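Q: What would this chain look like folded?
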Amino acid sequence: MLRFASLGSGSRGNAILVQGGDTLVLVDCGYPLKELRRRCALLGVDPDAIDAVFVTHEHGDHTRGVGPVARALGVPVWMSHGTWHARDYGALPELHLFNSHGGSIRVGELRIEPVPVPHDAREPAQFVVEHRDLRLGLLTDLGSHTPYVAARYRQLDALLLECNHDPVMLANGPYPPALQARVGGDYGHLNNAQAADFLCRIDHAALRHLVVGHLSEKNNRPGLASQVLCRAVPDIAARLALLAQDQVSAWFELGGP
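A: My prediction, written as structure tokens:
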């Protein structure tokens, strides 16, 4: 079985658990070790069982806990060369650097493919995770989608997709103009309509789970994001779940034991 869960998805912190068979990886860690343990406990997970940490990019809400957690658990960390050079993570027990345009990485029973994305970071990557014949796509923190990204995510069994903001709410919201331009730009975050357009460009009929994350608390509403997605793909409603920004989700499961 391949399963995944969000430990948090938003500006306060991001972390995703992905498990395939006996292999458990953590994608990003925006939380200190104590908070990570608390959130993992809500899912019945012992963090000491984590086999590796993968990092999408260097922003603090994704990396704040990477160094301390890796040192405490004694686990290897995988990130792009640019992500490593963009921030001081301290000494890591084992570091593996990848090219975001490179091939896949094998960790235990999981095959993990980095995918370069347009975001305002040094060398950002998102990931497609495979376990046997099951494929999970993780896709947040990008300001626009490209044909290359769509091709890498075309055939999936599950997708965690960013719906960060509504453009009208962003324009009329509390963010200063410079931050509005950053968030809404080509290297910022996907808005609801962009996410819906991306969904139409992949094989959405094959998705068993569409999980929507990284929703802005100030510039979006869950019901609005859901409405835009379901208008674009009406039959997605039964397979759609929306993540609360600072809450631990349930497990989303693919396959059987």
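The longest helix spans residues 222-232.
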